[in-house]
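User:
I would dearly like some help making sense of a protein record. Take your time, and here it is.
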Amino acid sequence: MEKATQPITYFLYCRKSSEAEDRQILSIESQKRELLNCAEKENLKIIDIIEEEKSAHHPGREKFDDMMARIKKGEANGLLVWHANRLSRNPVDSGQVIYSIDIGNIVEVRTPSRSFINNPDDKFMLSLEFGMSKKDSDDKSINVKNGLKTKLNMGWRPGVSPLGYLNNKLKEKGEKDIIKDSDRFDLVRKMWNLMLTGKYTAPGIVKIANNEWGFRTRQMKKQGGKPLCKTILYSIFTNPFYYGWFNYQGQLWKGAHEPMITEEEFDRVQTLLGRKGRPRPKKYNFLYTGLMRCGECGCSITADQKDQIICSKCKHKFSYKNRHECPKCGISIQEMENPKILRYLYYHCTKKRTAKCSQGSIEVAKLEQQFDKSLSRIEIDEEYKDVAIEHLNKTHNQEAEYRGNILKSKQKDYEDCIKRIDNLIRIKISLENKDGALLSDEEFKDQKNKILKEKALLEEILNDTGQRAEKWLELSERAFNFARYARYWFKNGSPEEKRQIFTALGSNIIVKDKKLVITLRKPFKIIEDGLKKAMVTKPQLIRFEPKNFRVNKAKVATFEGDFALWLRG
């Protein structure tokens, strides 16, 4: 109680963190100005002004800990802060402040809006303020993590984008993406081009960029606007961001930004650099693994990639996976002038069931050639496809009218079925049937079950008839479109599209004796059979890959029988 009667002297404490928790908090200068005005109005004695830029989410702030030690020594017995959350956002520091009030080391914690002294209500309110600050900080931390996770899943790299790209500041928060830097994108791409020739070293490219191109780094608030240095160039040449991926907290993510180079170009530069340090995360994309089985032992088919290089000096070919120089002449890869880099991809049996499986490997190019040949078995020209679909629609319209008549008949049957159920119930509950004279319980049960089964069957027919017809038409059109364009899609499509086409064409895909065997799915088998029949009966009318054409109605008329055959399938 003696300390309570002593004059109160204050430490003025200002804190702001650069982290997300303090985005909306006043700056340190603004806090200090507000608190000095408050001290002047209230005639408060300030011993020292303590400023700190550090998060209070965890204990360990140097200036805060030093201030509490000085309070323990008696240099001051009051704290003047803009808000209680400036003192603490964690339970350790909060407990330290509350305990100091308990034992009288702190007489008052004052803010511009209120005062906390050593009484139960004030200590409870101060504890509540600290608890709310802690919860607010935790909530924001969770929101930030969820926001980052969403951004990562969308393919956008958090943080400052690398040279050649810009963070799009024109979009709203949470929707910001990464765009090309129009001033530097092409120049950075030229740096990659120089390195890919194999005739330039990184220091040489730095000199060309700075002296001949006048390259300067992106100007930011506290840095930038300077010539390129070797460190930055090496960071560019080893960053997977430039081929469409990015590293975040040790994990490789697929980016949504526009790649500057291909993955093959990136790998070539890594080889030319002779990287001996920490390797980048390697992610091989084997398109057809998991889709094929060995025709001899039934094991799944896997893939291996072999990377080799031909020395520009002695022409020796060797694997560069664990080497940085030619094993024959000793010249380092980085010193080679335009070495030839080779990449081979093979598919082969895993031999998990038996090591005695005699099947060898097949190169991916030959595998794709054989698959293209399988696609050619069902390929039809544009004219044939259009007329087939036209015929499908005509047939569909004719059958739609026929189905309409059937549905009317079934609807009458369904209504009659409902009436029979109603009549059966009326008889069962009538006064004349009190003792089961008209309809016994067993008879009622048997007749009711029969009518209910009939009702369920009619409902299924009514609900399914129209939907199945529409689905049939849609699937048929998709099958004809696939037959027309699958080869083109497979040749020019993305890796994901090529895998989808590989999966869609057939089932039970096996590889035996370096040959691909595919069992076509039913729609495509029907098309293949139709084409074989047409080749036998009308070979002069079948042509593939037409350039420009107009529909020949006379020719199409000869295919009516084939269409009917296909439609039955």
Observations:
- The longest strand covers residues 301-310.
- Residues 276-281, 541-561 have pLDDT under 50 and may be disordered.
- Residues 15 and 52 are 5 Å apart (CA to CA).
- The chain has four domains: 2-151, 171-273, 293-360, 382-568.
